[in-house]
Amino acid sequence: MNRRVVFPRPLQYLMAIVEHGSYTKAAEALHVSQPSLSQQIKQLEESVMAPLLVRSGRSVRLTDAGEIYLHHTRRAYGELDAGTRAIEDVKNLSRGSLRLGWTPITDFLTCDLLGTFSMQHPGITLSTLEMPADDIDNAVMEDRIDIGIAFSKAGTKDLNGKDVVRTRLFEETLCLAVGNSHARAGQKERISAAELGKESMVMLNPNFALRTQVDEYCHQHGVMPKIAIETDSLSVIIEMVQFGPLATILPLSIIKTQCGIHPIVPAPAIPSKEIQLIYRSSGYKSPACRAFTDLATEWAINRMVNKPRRKLRPCPLASPEG
Amino acid sequence: MNRRVVFPRPLQYLMAIVEHGSYTKAAEALHVSQPSLSQQIKQLEESVMAPLLVRSGRSVRLTDAGEIYLHHTRRAYGELDAGTRAIEDVKNLSRGSLRLGWTPITDFLTCDLLGTFSMQHPGITLSTLEMPADDIDNAVMEDRIDIGIAFSKAGTKDLNGKDVVRTRLFEETLCLAVGNSHARAGQKERISAAELGKESMVMLNPNFALRTQVDEYCHQHGVMPKIAIETDSLSVIIEMVQFGPLATILPLSIIKTQCGIHPIVPAPAIPSKEIQLIYRSSGYKSPACRAFTDLATEWAINRMVNKPRRKLRPCPLASPEG
DNA sequence: TCAAACTCATAGGTTTTCGTTATAGATCGC
DNA sequence: GCGATCTATAACGAAAACCTATGAGTTTGA
What distance lies between CA A247 and its chain's CA centroid? Predict the structure, then answer.
């Protein structure tokens, strides 16, 4: 009889009495006085409006009703016992869930992190939501997601007193990317802002942080980018660049992991952007959430070290590797 | 939230808070003050050593652990709720069990009663134990069976102060029984004790009440019965009589229900014996037990009225009929 | 058969738990 | 920022659970 399980005393007593076949023995086992059992059982019988135990001199036995009621009692006890053990599982990270929000860019950059986490904690159910960068802060605040992964927001209201906190994971430098058949394929030299303005580009929609970043860069250097195609799909961009004459601007590490596209570093570098973890600063953080933030920072450090990485087809949640 | 169900208050509160999404609303619904909920939930969280609810200003939400624990809580609640409803079933006789003890003779006389009961209360699980007449009283006292059906015991210690009571169901007259091929087949006249002593008989073992009864009768009339075969099986006896030259002595109603055997009434009648219901006088009687005794007395009365009955092969628990 | 031992039930007093009121701290909407 | 709303805390009172002492009924063993 586990004291740690929340369970009605009368029912614990009932089980113990049947188990020991005697009020007295059960009382000893439970470290309570025997009259306590008498009283509690009496009240229980009144509450269910039926006798549960027959006290016939030598032995205590179950009535018909008692037999059936005890069966349900035991099942209920097992259920609550399982409940407390399940809580342990949550604490151990052998159970739980984690809702992750990220953008169409950051998923490419961190899906490996997700794979690592999933492998380390196979019991945690991960669910990811792709969403615009602007939504992520709200989603965190409104508790639609536990953790967000996004680019740092451009200066505007960096920490507006809300209870979300953003921590740096790593930085990404932005490069021009061209395919194998592109005229600049294999170019080692850096490319100037002016030259960059001459390339036909496939780019993300202007509501992406990455796009506004590029637009600002071009504006600062007095060039007007030639946007051939706009899309909200990173896969589309990569596909177009891989097999066509169009260029694009993407984080360097994404370019490196994709087959058939090559980076060309711009001469005045495009200001690098921070990839950040976004989560509630105050309030409850589930064990899974805490574990994820811990793993993420650790992973970001290792990422700097093991820079060379295998080329991958775009595939969030792909097979994990260091 | 049913007050009649035995269930831990903290868990009832937890369910209500989640249901209403607020401590205050749950407190109103439960007709308790709001601080009660705060305290109980706090204690519950301490007892399971994990936060279950996140109070984040506007809304109250479940934590990861709370989600899982609530699931188990609801199941446990349902289990105990089902338990109290199951007790109602027992009282309604739509569930329950009844253990019946009888002898190899009385089962033939009352299996129709059993069939009737089973049909009236299909939810009651009947289990029958065939046992020597002498065991039945002990079995009732030791609560191995709920009800016994046996012949009245010959005078000896009729009611020896124990808490078993015997009530009369009906009486049986004992007759000589012969098969179709027997010399006396079809005899209408009564048979004297002396003539009876000349018949070769197949009889029950001497430890059966019926047998001792016959032995006494013979002794009183100064005849020595010719026992050709002794057995403890009534079926064997009937089989032997049906298809052989042997006779036997059996209750009249058994003879009447068997094909191919015929009764011959002895001239000084063998003292008739009472078939009795045996059960505990004091202590708990299950609803099923009570219902059975009620039905049995009613059935015994009707039995006297509808005397003619169909011929049956020996078959306890055969298809019921009036 | 009787007494000792054992069982559960009951009564009265004590401790613990639970519930309530009052109030403080925090958050949300205006 | 201020009022409204919600939860947490504190202190007190009510209810319950528990314990000791004792009684009634049974069983055991001499």
Answer: 33
In this predicted model, what pLDDT tens digit does every residue of B19-73 receive, in sequence order?
Answer: 888 898 899 888 898 899 999 999 999 889 998 998 876 688 888 889 999 999 9
Rg (CA), chain B: 31
Nearest to B69 among A4, A65, A87 (CB): A87
Determine contact, residues B207/B132, Cβ cutoff 8 Å. Answer: yes
Pairing type for strands B248-251 and B164-179 reads antiparallel
The span from the CA of A5 to the CA of A12, in Å, is: 10
Is residue A236 a contact partner of residue A259, using CB atoms and an 8 Å limit?
Answer: no
Beta bridge partners of B61: B54
Q: CB-CB: which of B47, B64, B288 is closest to A97?
A: B64
The share of chain B scoring above pLDDT 70, in percent, equals: 88
Chain A partners within 8 Å of B65 (Cβ): 86-87, 90-91, 286
**Using 50, 70 and 90 to split pLDDT, how confident is the model at A166?**
confident
Using a 7 Å CB cutoff, list residues 54-83 of B near strand D: 55, 60
Phi and psi at residue A165, to the nearest 5°: -120, 145
> CA B278, CA B167: separation in Å to the nearest integer?
7
d(CA A70, CA A68): 5
* 3-state secondary structure labels for all residues of chain B: CCCCCCCCHHHHHHHHHHHHCCHHHHHHHHCCCHHHHHHHHHHHHHHHCCCCEEEECCEEEECHHHHHHHHHHHHHHHHHHHHHHHHHHHHHCCCEEEEEEECCCHHHHHHHHHHHHHHHCCCEEEEEEECCHHHHHHHHHCCCCCEEEEECCCCCCCCCCCCEEEEEEEEEEEEEEEECCCCCCCCCCCECHHHHHHCEEEEECCCCHHHHHHHHHHHHCCCCCEEEEEECCHHHHHHHHHHCCCEEEEEHHHHHHCCCEEEECECCCEEEEEEEEEEECCCCCCHHHHHHHHHHHHHHHHHHHCCCCCCCCCCCCCCCCC
Structural contact between residues B250 and B174, judged by C-beta atoms closer than 8 angstroms: yes
Contacts with B, A 94-153, CB within 8 Å = 95-97, 143
Task: Rounding to the nearest 10 degrees, give the CA dihedral for residues B102, B108, B112, B117.
Answer: 10
Residue in this structure with the two tokens 């953790």, named with its chain if needed: A147
pLDDT tens for each residue of A14-33: 999 998 888 988 998 889 98
Helices (H), chain A: 9-20, 23-30, 34-48, 64-92, 106-120, 133-141, 193-196, 209-220, 234-243, 252-257, 287-305
CB-based contact (8 Å) between A6 and chain B?
Answer: yes
